[in-house]
Write a structure and sequence with these properties.
The protein is an alpha/beta fold and 328 residues long. The protein has 8 helices and 18 strands. The strands form 4 sheets. Strands 1, 2, 3, 4, 5, 6, 7, 14, 15, 16, 17 and 18 form a 12-stranded mixed sheet that branches. Strands 8-11 form a two-stranded antiparallel ribbon. Strands 9-10 form a two-stranded antiparallel ribbon. It starts with a helix and ends with a helix. The relative contact order is 0.18. The N terminus is likely disordered.
């Protein structure tokens, strides 16, 4: 009887406390309690929503995925934490399509969400990029061998006008700085649990690269839907480096620095983040990036808005040719 009374008193006190906090929140206590319960349920981890082995295809934003969505067969959409994933078949191969969102944190977060909820055998990124290598032109498709996070930097102390120094505790650096910005490797932990290591480059999968090298004959668009055409026919270039960071680059001097320092063909805002997540998960990765602009190297305004659709479709065309050539 005493125990029963104690529990009853505790329940009354808990209810009073809930009413009190509900009053301060300006809403009924039961409503606040209901929201809290719903939020807690939404936050619970969940398993896979689809167990079929699939090649995953990511793009950063909708226009980059338009051609692939149009070609997808037997689509089935899932929404997970506000992100839409669509399964189906492309060129006869089981795939899952999704948007990573723009920039590094979105790309990393949604790549991991993709791995958590689907059985991903390989990861492919298809999208646009800024051209850094002066030998590449708008509309060309670059398929880098490796990706680095070139805006992972130490902002160095200025010790004299135009002279900068990083703290000794940050160690040695592989790459030349840009003013006060000193690039450095990221500290990562592998899935094998071998401890923390410093790593700048995250490699594309060798087998996927080999298949990409064999599809040089893929027809690429040189004109947009309004029949505005590029001066030269676009090309597919497999190999070299790509770099990714949180900044949209439209600066000629920084473009020259990125090419000189990293020997980068292209720069974007997602690929290296996806490559890092794929590296940790042990998922083979490759990225097809078509030049929509010259990252500040052109003679006039940034070209992205003018050539976005040509570039997005060219990356997708190479991806479709890659899927046709891929052998399981």
């Amino acid at each position: 009887m005493k125990c029963h009374s104690t529990r009853r008193i505790a329940a009354i006190l808990a209810s009073a406390a809930l009413l009190w906090t509900g009053g301060w929140a300006g809403s009924p206590a039961w409503a606040a309690s209901g929201r809290a319960s719903a939020d807690a349920m939404a936050a619970q981890p969940a398993g896979r929503v689809d167990d079929s082995p699939r090649m995953a295809i990511l793009s950063a934003f909708a226009p980059e995925l338009d051609l692939l969505r149009a070609r997808l067969r037997d689509p089935h959409a899932y929404t997970v934490q506000g992100v839409e994933f669509t399964t189906g078949s492309l060129e006869g191969r089981p795939v899952v399509l999704a948007l990573s969102g723009i920039s590094m944190v979105n790309a990393a977060m949604n790549t991991q969400l993709l791995f958590d909820r689907f059985h991903v055998t390989h990861l492919v990124f298809s999208g646009i990029a800024g051209g850094v290598n002066p030998g590449l032109r708008i509309g060309d498709v670059s398929v880098p061998e490796r990706w680095g996070q070139y805006l992972e930097v130490v902002m160095m102390r200025e010790t004299a006008p135009g002279r900068y120094r990083a703290p000794a505790s940050k160690g040695a650096f592989e790459f030349a700085p840009y003013g006060m910005m000193q690039p450095r490797a990221v500290r990562v932990r592998s899935a094998e649990g071998t401890g923390i290591q410093e790593k700048f480059w995250f490699e594309a999968d060798p087998r996927m690269l080999a298949v990409a090298r064999g599809i040089q004959s893929v027809p690429l668009r040189g004109c947009d839907r309004q029949n505005h055409c590029l001066d030269e026919r676009p090309r597919l270039v497999v190999g070299g480096n790509g770099v990714s960071g949180q900044a949209f680059v439209d600066n000629a001097d920084f473009r020259r620095y990125a090419f000189r320092t990293f020997q980068a063909n292209v720069l974007d805002m997602e690929s290296a983040a996806c490559a890092q997540v794929a590296w940790r998960a042990g998922v083979p990765f490759i990225a097809f990036r078509s030049l929509s602009d010259l990252a500040g190297g052109g003679p006039g305004e940034n070209e992205m808005n003018a050539f976005l659709h040509i570039a997005a479709d060219n990356a997708a065309r190479v991806l479709l040719a890659f899927l046709r050539a891929w052998q399981d």
